[in-house]
Every structure is written in structure tokens, then in C-alpha cells.
Design a protein that fits this description.
Number of domains: 1
Helix content: 55-70%
Number of strands: 0
Shape: globular
């Protein structure tokens, strides 16, 4: 792999993909917590916008899954990295519940949070700080080998 391809594959293309994702979330109205909360209000003023965004995302992903078997390898990697785990364990269920509760309370999840960061950075900073703290806490509790003391002794 050449230096130019490594540079674009490891930094520029993911940055462009993230910017496109953020732009799509913004265009779809997913940076507005009221829209997400409106989607979750099934018995009140239900807002179907999020359902349309999900259907669009699912259609694009379905197309990608149809194309993937026809490719020998990814354009910017040596191999496809496809998860092989299919089990549902208590940690997955608990994490899903915590994610859903937080999403319902805040009306924002990580993708739109970073899109909002580009629009109005001050208002979303507490959410992003709490999200990053939660990620670090999870890593510290469930991945002891990632703790600084464990890395130093390795």
C-alpha cells in the first residue's frame, strides 16, 4: 500500500464519510431532539421523520450487503471485518437498555451529537462529555487490560 493510499484510507476518507453521515443526519432533522422525542411519543404527537431516516439507512445498508460478496476485498483494506458473534448476552441487553433510556431522555445519540458539535458546539458539550465519560467508565470496568496500570506492567 502506498503512502498516499494509506493517508487517504486512514484519515481523509473516514473524515469524508463522517462528514457525509453528519450532513445526512442534519438534513434528515436528526440533530433536533424534539424530532426524536416526537418519534418516541407513539400515543401523542407522533413524528415519523426518524422512521423515514431509518428506512433510508436500512435500504443503503441492504444494498451494501448485496454488493459486498461481489468484491474480493475492500478498496482501502486488506480484508472485510465482519462480526461473527451472534449471541445475545446480559451485557448487550443492559447496554441496549441504557442506550435507549439515554436516547429517550436526551433525544440525541452519538452520531447526531457529533453532527450538532459542528453546528452549535457549546450546547452539546455536556452530552458529549457525559458520553465520553461513560465510554471510559465502561472500558475501565469491563476491559481491565486497558487501565493505565495494566498497560504499564505489560
Amino acid at each position: 500500500m502506498t503512502a498516499d493510499r494509506t493517508w487517504s484510507g486512514r484519515l481523509l476518507l473516514p473524515l469524508a464519510a463522517g462528514a457525509l453521515f453528519g450532513a445526512g443526519l442534519t438534513l434528515g432533522g436528526m440533530t433536533d431532539p424534539a424530532r426524536v422525542k416526537g418519534f418516541l411519543d407513539w400515543f401523542g404527537a407522533w413524528d415519523p421523520t426518524l422512521a423515514f431516516v431509518m428506512v433510508g439507512a436500512t435500504a443503503i445498508m441492504a444494498l451494501a450487503w448485496l454488493i459486498r460478496p461481489r468484491l474480493a476485498r475492500p478498496v482501502l483494506s486488506e480484508a472485510f471485518f465482519i462480526p461473527d458473534r451472534r449471541d445475545i448476552d446480559p451485557r448487550l441487553v443492559a447496554g441496549s437498555i441504557v442506550f435507549g433510556i439515554g436516547w429517550g431522555i436526551a433525544g440525541i445519540c452519538p452520531g447526531p451529537a457529533f453532527a450538532i458539535l459542528g453546528l452549535e458546539s457549546v450546547a452539546i458539550l455536556p452530552f458529549i462529555g457525559a458520553m465520553l465519560a461513560g465510554m471510559l467508565l465502561h472500558r475501565w470496568v469491563f476491559e481491565p487490560e486497558s487501565r493505565p496500570a495494566a498497560r504499564a506492567s505489560a
